[in-house]
Amino acid sequence: MHEVPNLKLNNGVLVPQLGLGVWQAKDGTEVERAIAVAFENGYRLIDTAKIYGNETGVGNAMKASGLKREEIFLTTKLWNSDQGYDQTMRAFDGSLQRLGTDYVDLYLIHWPMPKVGKFTDTWKAFEKLYADKRVRAIGVSNFMVTHLEELLSASDLVPAVNQVELHPRLAQRELREFCDQHDIEVESYSPLMHGGEVLDEDAVKQIANRHSKTPAQVVLRWHIQNGLIVIPKSVTPSRIKENIDIFDFELTAKDMAAIDAMDNGGRINPHPDNLNQ
Ligand code: NDP
After folding, report:
1. What confidence tens digit (pLDDT) does each residue in 196-249 have?
2. 23 close to ligand 1 (CB < 6 Angstrom)
3. What distance in Å separates the CA atoms of residue 240 and residue 225, rounded to the nearest whole number?
4. Is 52 a catalytic residue?
5. 187 lines ligand 1 (CB under 6 A)
6. Domains, the chain, ranges and CATH?
7. Would the pTM count as exceeding 0.90?
8. Which of 145, 173, 248, 269 sits in a 20 to 30 Å window from 56, CA-based?
9. Which alpha helices (DSSP H) does the chain contain, by range?
10. Tens digit of pLDDT for each residue in 115-152?
11. How far is CA 181 from the centre of its chain?
């Protein structure tokens, strides 16, 4: 059982710095087993979304765990076709129903959809859900600096979190700086670059050998030491355990710099300005 440190969001709410992502975990047994293993090993944050199609399984897993609802930090996201004030309210009710709970800890606008132009209206609905205490914190996902600037200039509440693609190939330095200045926590998605090339890099392998850790553990540790929230996905019990076993070692400044040097702006997910449906 591992103890995960908490970060404090800009409204005082505490969030575990590491959680389980469940995109592509199938609804039913697959997602329920993964979450059961995660809870047994100390995970308390689960990151889902309406579009993942597994909110029902996430709700079942929470119920089956025997944990109190307040011990779990549950994130879900508003899908693109549900943007707009009234649609958001309806979509939120649907998510709560599938999740079998009466609140979520963090609700995110999944993508900005700048050409559709509805994210500020959507945010007004998010502010209402927050005021009504149906969500403990509200945030955004895939927002770039320009989208955040537009949102901030039109809104009362600053997002608590911006969840974006972030890994050693795409370190998002400029966005992180902007978020720091505005007290927005950055949450790294696809933190292992989807189990891809960052885990095969010689630099990462050498650092891993030196610390008697795996490449995935080194990369996740890099996120933690950068002050990011990180949500690796796995449905494989051994990897779920491996990914949380990162709080007993520390990367040196030299290790961190070697991993920082891998940034080449490489994305594996769509560019936020190009996703419009
Ligand atoms: P990750 O970088 O977390 O990689 C997940 C993949 O890596 C899976 O194929 C998994 O395989 C494999 N893997 C997991 N752990 C290890 C390990 N220790 N060693 C080797 N391979 C490993 O990618 P995701 O894109 O899934 O991102 C994580 C989460 O972020 C998502 O689940 C979702 O919650 C969120 N997300 C949010 C997005 C957004 O738009 N807001 C977009 C994309 C993701 P296996 O499961 O078979 O073990």
Report:
1. 889 999 999 999 999 999 999 999 999 999 999 999 999 999 999 999 999 999
2. yes
3. 20
4. yes
5. no
6. 13-199+230-235 (3.20.20.100)
7. yes
8. 269
9. 29-40, 55-65, 85-99, 119-131, 145-154, 173-181, 202-211, 215-225, 237-244, 253-260
10. 999 999 999 999 999 999 999 999 999 999 999 999 99
11. 20
